[in-house]
# Entry
Amino acid sequence: PIPLTCPVRILQGMKDPDVPWQHAMRLVDALDSTDVTINLSKSGDHRLSTPQDIARLTQTLDTLLEEVEG
# Structure
């Protein structure tokens, strides 16, 4: 287990040639945190640089900041 208990948000491209999306799934399982979400982009690659991926990243960060800052 990974003794990390803070909120964790993972964005992963399923077409990533460098880091298979299954690694992100294993990471989720290994984390001690109970506040973990994973967002898989079916067409996303390693860079997640399409406008849709960037919007998803921005929204994820905005939501996380709202949750953490209360």
